[in-house]
Amino acid sequence: MPQPALPEPLLSLLADLAEDPPTSSTVLRARLVPRLRAAIDDALAAEDARLCAERNGLACAGRICALMDAVVRTAFEAVTRHLYPLENPSRAERLAIVATGGYGRGTLAPGSDVDLLFLLPYKQTAWGESIVEAMLYVLWDLKLKVGHATRSVDECIREARADMTIRTALLETRLILGEEPLYEELTRRFDAEVIDGTAADFVEAKLKERDRRTGRTGASRYLVEPNVKDGKGGLRDLNTLFWIGKYVYRVRDPKELVAAGLFSAEEFRLFARCEEFLWRVRCHMHFVTGRAEERLTFDLQPKIAARIDYSNRVGLSQVERFMKAYFLRAKDVGDLTAIVCAALEARHAKPKPMLDRVIGSFRRAKAQRLQSGDFVIENERLTVKDASVFTRDPVNLVALYWHADRNDVAIHPDASRHATRALKLIGAEVRKDPRANKLFLEILTSKNAPESVLRRMNEAGVLGRFVPDFGRIVAMMQFNMYHHYTVDEHLIRSIGRLADLESGRLDADHPLSHKIIHTVQHRRALYVALFLHDVAKGREEDHSVAGARIARKLGPRLGLTPAEVETVAWLVEHHLLMSTVAQSRDLSDPRTIQDFAGVVQTMERLKLLLLLTVCDIGAVGPGVWTGWKGELLRTLYYETEMVLGGGASEMERPQRIRMAQERLRAELPDWSEEAFDAYAARHYPSYWLKVDLRYRIKHAEFIRAAQARGETVTVSYETDAFRGVTEFTVLSPDHPRLLAILTGACAAAGGNIVDAAIFTTADGMALDTIFVSRAFEHDEDELRRAERVARSIERALKGEVKISDLVDGRRQSRERVRVFDVVPEVIIDNSLSSRQTVLEVTGLDRPGLLYDLTTALGKLNLNIASAHIATFGEKAVDVFYVTDLTGGKVVQAARQSAIRKAVMEVLARDRAGKAKEPALARA
């Protein structure tokens, strides 16, 4: 096999070695390695620039592979000429150096492993062993990641039969140098003794391996920080397709898959476009990071987007446009996977699939009888009767998915393939067709599995064509740390959450939602509103307002009644309201509840909005829903329910206070009348109106125990697994900077504060409860952490430690690259509370932010009545209910201006470097 000429720097290196031959392995490496490393670095720098200029990732990967070939050949030439030369090698002293795996395929990223097989005729010899050892030392000294094996042909065959990973590596081999007959013997025997007759086993193993791999890296191809190599829709999926095609169809080059009938010419062009794009992204990632980075993280995304030369567009930033292109390519890889699976089944090279889920015998019998009309059941999956089904009646493009849902069967890949090819048939006439819209509405509101059916429609492209507004957000990501999925995937997952709620599968996590979901009157409106709530993302106009307008246009088309259309529009326009109020307002303030009830107006809307909010938050991503958020939403629901039902009003305050005191007295039978009266007199009226009975009991026992011990500073704690928080109750002499000390102590100990209830007693003591998000699953672990946080708080309150130093140390230990930018905002509002000024602060989250804010407010001589802490990825929204030193609202314009200036100075520290720190310690 003719070898390409070595690059001039390597030829010059070999010539210099020949003129002055090295006398030992040490001398050889000392002279060889630095110049080889310099040649590699120069070549990679040139490839980096060429990739940016030419924009061809596959070509770049091929040239890097050729560079590694040249390095291996140079090392071999140097070792065999100067250390272990052979004049007349025996039959045993033959060696072939073979590239395997991705390297064997002829593509390498800058940081990829170099996988080598040192192929021997039948057993290791001293000469062969020396050659391999010397070469490996050279390659290791070059800091290359070398995967290697030294085997005879017999050993390769034996290992390949026993191990599917080795078999896959040997499936893609390429001779770099050495004995060509030896390599040809390996390929011939591998084909005859390993591949022949084992196609079905190989296919099954590779598909199972793919499922395990994507399970580890993320089962969805729409994760916003995808793994380009191993994630679903990534390069490894394309590799798997080619491995399967090569194994089953016995082809050597991907282009041969067209002649083999696996792909059409158009589909192979799609395969090639996907491969080039993914390789381009991967090579850019390796060049930018200087290592084998495979996860397209938030900090990398803007850099790669700029290198690939995307630009900002209206509604979408540069990075969002790039990521949309990435997810569309990942979707294309999924389409190709379905095509390959269908072809393999036709050849009986893939086991028949199981149903998506177990169904009853009645449903299965019903499915098997579907043999008339345009669709049939084959191998327990729905397919078309013939290729003209969709041209004959384009409404069948929707009916296909309706039948799949009604019969609880998967859709055959062939049917999906035909549907994708017929997408242009979905025009204005089909979108207006009453039959099509009726079928779609029944799919969307189905009690079977609407999420999986909608996802199939989306991946085939049918959903975006039938609902063009949905098509605009397909593969769209939002560049933030809050949303884990693309917008379309989030909407589809939210429908799945609602279906799970309705079926009772989530009753333990959402007891209130489970209780009310079957009492709503506008079930169809709820499903449509959830499907549309984020459909207007990526537009200049507020997406809630634009989404409501879309709902009013689409609702009548789907066949909703006028009342349902208005309900959908209202829900879409206000879909963020309940979450915002619950997480960032004082729910014990009557004004909060009255204002919220004034917007909601009816119990039906309240129920619908709660259900939509629960499903929306739950579909954002793993870990976003917490029991604490559920508690806040339930509290807001029950308080609003009372107002809408004509419950307690402000006029009843004295009676409500008296009742609260009487209920507490009944729970403390061992207290004397004198002791209880003295205790009750310590609390202001706001305490009795705001605090639940269970907390009033805990507080009374806590304060009495502290008095008995003679303590003026003490902290208690307990965990709450259902709400996902740990509560810290603090008793201390009150002073203006108390909350700043508490938040700083929590920050220093790694506590992530989500809420704070703050009360002052008539005798000058502060009784504060801090709610910190749970860090550990098991109570024993969480209690140990709580002990550390409590001790940190006590030491800080007693002046044993300097809080600012502890917080600064926490900041330095968590420093990382700053990626995101959140425009800071300070809103001062006196209309949201009847007694306090509401200060809403929005900015970039970081450790110590809450400490810095409360410190600034303390210096301004503001009393903080309550604090409500919400984090949305990198965005912090902290709300403080404050008064001046006289207990009144802050109304003077100059005073408000000073507050705004001081808070903005705190937030401005984070924008200079466009910072982002994970929300691990919100305090």
Structure description:
With 923 residues, the protein is α+β, with helices and mostly antiparallel strands. The protein contains 41 helices and 15 strands. An 8-stranded antiparallel beta sheet has the order 8-9-11-10-14-15-13-12, with helices on both faces. Helix 12 crosses helix 14. The chain is globular. The C terminus is likely disordered.
Short description:
The chain has 923 residues and is an alpha+beta fold. Helix content is 57%, strand content 11%. The protein starts with 7 loop residues before the first helix and ends in a 12-residue tail after the last helix.
Measured between the Cα atoms of the first and last residue, the distance is: 67 Å
* Main sheet specs: 8 strands, antiparallel
How much helicity do the residues have? Answer: 55-70%
Strand proportion: 5-15%
Assigned CATH architecture of the domain at 714-911: 2-Layer Sandwich
The first-level CATH class of the domain at 714-911 is given as Alpha Beta
Cα shape: globular
Q: Say how many strands there are.
A: 15
Radius of gyration, in angstroms, nearest whole number: 34 Å
Q: Record the strand order, biggest sheet.
A: 8-9-11-10-14-15-13-12
Average pLDDT value?
A: 88
What is the fourth-level CATH superfamily of the domain at 714-911? ACT domain
Give me the secondary-structure category.
alpha+beta
Total helical elements: 41
The CATH topology of the domain at 714-911: Alpha-Beta Plaits
Low-confidence stretches: 353-368, 813-817, 912-923
